[in-house]
Amino acid sequence: MLATLAQAVINGLLIGGIYALVSIGVTLIFGVVKIVNFAQGEFVMIGMYISFFLASSFGVDPLLSLLISMPTLFAIGVLVQHFLIRRVLGLGDMPQIFLTFALSLLLMNVALLLFTANYRTVQTAYSESSFHIGPLYFAVAKLIAFVIAMLLSAVLYLFLHGTDLGKAMRAAAQNREVAMLMGINPDRVFCVAVGVALALAGAAGSLLMPFYPAYPLVGQVFVLMAFVAVVLGTLGNITGALIASLMMGVAESLGVQFVGADSGLIVVFVLLLLTLALRPNGLFGGWAR
Amino acid sequence: MAEALVIRNLSKRFGGLRAVQDLSFSVRDGETVALIGPNGAGKTTSFNLVTGYYRPDTGSVSAFGRELVGLRPHDICGHGLARTFQVARPFGKMTVLANVMTGAFLRNRNMDIARSRARAAIDFVGLSAKEHTAARELTTIDQRRLEMARALATEPRLLLLDEVMAGLNHAEIDQAVALIGNLSKRGLTIVIVEHVMRAIMAVARHIVVLDHGQKIAEGSPREVVANAEVIRAYLGTGYRHEVPPAGTVGGVAC
Amino acid sequence: MGAVKSARFTRSWSWVAALAAAGLVLPVVVADPFALDIFIRVLLFAFIGVAWNLMGGYAKQLSLGHAAFFGLGAYTSTILLIRFGISPWIGILAGGLVAMAASLPIGALCFRLRGPYFAIATIATAQVLMLLFLKFRDFAWGAEGTTLPNLGDAPLMMQFESRAAYYYIALALLTLGLAITYCIERSWIGFYLVAVGEDEDAAEAVGVDTTKIKRHIYLISAFLTALAGTFYVEYIYFIDPNTAFSFNISVEAALVSIVGGIGTLWGPVVGTVLLEATSALLQSWLGSGHGGVQLTVYSLILIAVILWRPNGLIGLFTDLYQRFTHAGAARARKVPFDG
Question: Where exactly does CATH 3.40.50.300 map onto chain B?
């Protein structure tokens, strides 16, 4: 019994790492640009398809394809910020919500048209392998994904706290007007923020490929997890998003293990509604308002 | 004389910041009181506490005999307190007339009555010519006028004005002072937060001075201007105060 | 004079009368059942859009979960019909009441949030309802849903041989929605709604009980949306959780208003006509079976509207009309909300 519990927790943590990459992206964009990116899941999907096609056409291992998917999505992020998001900043809730929402719809349906709804998978040498520590079993692909996800999160943390650009981003997140007065160019900072967030989403996609299928609507599941984690972890708080994502992964896993196979989604929704009801400001009253 | 507003031991902190500490003062019915202090002293926070946007940690606020703490802003408005915001917040999509009518509906939901009351308020602040202009197209100063008209349309007994004079030129300040004087003559109790000394001297009978969330002085304009604590708060400790000639306040003839 | 002073063409009663006349006569002229079906869908989705617009357009409470009320309406009337033999004419009202009741706790929860997080919360509530109904085998048929009993021509049970009857019901629903919107617009409620939509804090400062207003408009919006749900189920003789609580319904409810003219009387109608016309054109060019084309086009239209005409396309039409008829363009310059 304890072993089952521990296993569920481990499985939850491992997938939680992926959720973390997606939710950190959402919370980063929200903190800096003050906009909720409804399309974040679709960028995960794009990352997955990039890795899929690199693997199936050129035999590139998905983990290696990180080197392609991340920069590509960074570039896409810069374009999205510069040509789309920038045009709706300051216009109020409706344009901001529905722009990224429309983008999400667009990407999903274009993917449907281009790739059909078929599941695409990639088999790697380690897709099926696992190892045991006592009664606990670790899927290699998931473990690697988790480790890389944590590494990327650490790199992001260093970037935000150690580099000038990162500090500029945090400054712009805390107080845009003052940051501008200090000479920080908001558009540049926003482009980087969105670029980084999408790069993380792309990374999530590539990391998922060894053990998860790609299909046009795949992003929806992950973005839902991400939103709950972002709210739970307090809007704009990156560490909060990370911790909350891991918690979400565990909660979902426990739900699947002990309640029922299809209860994962209900657990998530219930968690979201509970959070909204009891602690709408999230678990960590971060610096975002 | 009855007290229009009584504030007792009001305190509010935000995390580590004590925005307002143990603030107490009263405003007599029909009086015009100025609330002054350096930036960050807690003036707007006090307004927000009085009008129900923040809940105080301790203390009480009562207006016309009614306890206000715990009430939502719209209830407080219903009890006769109206306020303007430091940065004007008009309903941009609506015209001037529609904005003010929204305020008028508080007292009477009939369209025609609300419209005529709104027009009276608009006329009072001098915006009649722009009645059908969309609020978002007004100049900042007109938006402030609009905000005042909208507040007046709710038929308040106590009006809280937050820095209405900021950025006005001399003539405009005189106009605003005249407006406030008119309101006072109508019996309105007024509390203004201001930095423009000329205006304060002209309208306020009584001044309350805040610094770092605490009341550091209170009294008539002449008393307050001569107060050492007040001078220190605004100018720092390096200033040596000289007694101004009799018949003036701070060098200004009064 | 009313609260909304839009361009004179939309306020002119002669245009409305012409439209109404055309609307009433249409089924007589158009006999083809497929064409009539399109019109019925246009009327229905315009109605759903109008119901959404009251909340999302005027009060700017941008819900993406209105399918919750659509589904509750649909299921209430169907359960009453199949389990208790109660006529859908009563069921439709019961569905509306159930939706209203549901809007209270949903609102209590969701209104704590502003902006995008309100939207996300509404999505979540609609999804939770869908998941619940997927599980309720016992009295709500679970995931397979159920077909409605075909009673032939049974007007008292809201079933008709002729498609025209459904058309008139849909027309009546749309008229109801427009009438309610029109009355609200010209009353203090309309002003308060727009005030809440523009700036809740400022609205509170002038005595608007924003919580109550939001709650009340949610009640109305939920009620109307539920009516649409019952009608739809009666029209297609089928119900299941994926159809009744479909996210697409929530999306379309918002979409037609945004594209047509958010916060305006005719906006949702304009938006529905445009989007359904586009959809019909696409179908005739490409045939069906290209899953994703319709939504791709819809999302492109939405992006275009947001970037270039965030107030919706109705403004474009009224501008064109003024230019075309030289109808005192300078004076009738559209001011969104006037006294």
Answer: 3-80+159-253
pTM for the model: 0.89
First to last CA, chain C: 7
A103 contact residues in C (CB cutoff 8 A): 299, 303
C336 located within any domain = no
Q: Do B77 and C206 touch (CB under 8 A)?
A: yes
Determine the Cα–Cα distance for residues B56 and B24; give it in Å rounded to an integer.
13
Q: What is the distance in angstroms between the Cα of C208 and the nearest Cα belonging to chain B?
A: 6
Q: How does pLDDT run across B66-91, given as a tens digit for each residue?
A: 999 999 999 999 999 999 999 999 99
Quote the number of domains for chain C: 1
C-alpha to C-alpha distance for C175 and B188, rounded to whole angstroms: 48
Q: Who among C205, C208, C211 is closest to B83 (CB)?
A: C205
Nearest to C131 among A106, A117, A265 (CB): A265
Looking at the DSSP bridge assignments, the partners of residue B94 are C337
- d(Cα C167, Cα C23) in Å, to the nearest integer? 10
Spatial neighbors of C104 by CB under 8 A, at least 6 apart, are C215, C219
Q: Do C112 and A280 touch (CB under 8 A)?
A: yes
pLDDT digits (tens, 9 = 90+) for C89-136: 999 999 999 999 999 999 998 898 878 888 988 998 998 899 889 887
User: Is CATH 1.10.287 the right assignment for the domain spanning A2-278?
Assistant: no
CATH number for the domain that contains residue C210: 1.10.3470
3-state secondary structure of B188: coil
Q: Which of A93, A101, A112 sits opposite C292 (nearest CB)?
A: A112
Structural domain includes residue C276: yes
The residue of chain C nearest to residue A102, with distances taken between CA atoms, is: C299
ipTM reported for the complex surpasses 0.85: yes
**Cβ <8 Å between B77 and C3:** no
Q: Tell me if the domain spanning B3-80+159-253 has CATH number 3.55.40.20.
A: no
